[in-house]
Amino acid sequence: MKNKFFAVFFVLVVALASCQPLEPTDSSEVERLKEQNQILSQQLLESQEQIRQLQNEVNILSTQAAQIQPTPIQQGNLEGLAAEILEILKAKDFVALDSYVHPEKGVRFSPQGTIKTETDLVFNREEVANFALYNNNFTWGSHFAKDELLVMSVNDYWDQYVIPKGLDQEWIMLEEDEATPSQAIDNFDEVYPQGTYIDFLQPGTEKYDQLDWQSLRLAFEQTADGAYYLVAIIHDNWVP
User: Fold this and answer.
1) What are the distances in angstroms from CA 144 to CA 34, 93, 138?
2) Which one, out of 6, 24, 42, 113, has a CA that is 20 to 30 A from the CA of 36?
3) Could you tell me which residues are beta bridge partners of residue 200?
4) CB atoms within 10 A of CB 61
């Protein structure tokens, strides 16, 4: 949608730039310029109408996304809810994801297993829905083992700390009493005393003695309406 909008805008700019006054040399040249101006004026009107239509479409889609509400999920069905969200994360369907985000608390992104409330980024539902439009970089915290900040775009963060690329394995949903291989301090209960979560694991490969494992924790909190909403997406992996 954004690319289409800017394509129309570019045509508009070109049309305006082409409307610079020229010195006619004879009557035929004057007529030719008149015809050219008429064509450009028509193109300008058509471009303006396309821009208005595109803006209306954007407004309609934004309204529809804001009105989508997830069905209240009872505790016993959180596994199904988490499985749905995992597929949305794989597809990078940000508009679909925003309807699962907690309406008041938003969703936190933690790049390592230990939640860092002072540096983890939290986005509200509208911001999540617009992730595909963000080209700027964010500081997502700092690397666990290196003295460097994690400065990257939403897309790059997604490919490294949400659904990491490179490991061609299915995500396994862990049972409640199953633990990931993580050595990180698990402070989830301190940060979300009313929360619950579902863990997914890519167990890694024999080639690297399973040290290339990745885990993903989807954390939820219940609101007064009985629904469970996503409050955190917590990534973890082995750090040398």
Assistant:
1) 67, 28, 17
2) 6
3) 173, 216
4) 13
**How does pLDDT run across 69-95, given as a tens digit for each residue?**
544 454 458 999 999 999 999 999 999
Residue 105: strand, helix, or coil? coil
Of the ranges 23-32, 104-113, 188-197, 219-228, which one carries the lowest mean pLDDT score? 23-32
Let me know how many helices (H) and strands (E) the chain has, helices first: 7, 8
Q: Which of 172, 184, 191 is nearest to 86 (CA)?
A: 172
Query: What is the per-residue burial (b if ≥16 Cβ within 10 Å, else e) of 92-131?
Result: bebbbbbbbbbeebbbbbbbbbbbeeeebbebebebbbbb
Quick one: which of 126, 105, 42 has its CA closest to 231? 105
Asked if CATH classification 3.10.450 holds for the domain at 75-237, the reply, yes or no, is yes
Question: Residues with Cβ < 8 Å from 60, sequence gap 6 or more?
Answer: none
Q: Read off the pLDDT band of 66 (50, 70, 90).
A: very low
Length of the chain: 240
Residue 106 CA to residue 131 CA, distance in Å, equals 14
Angle formed at CA 230 by CA 227 and CA 233, multiple of 5 degrees? 160
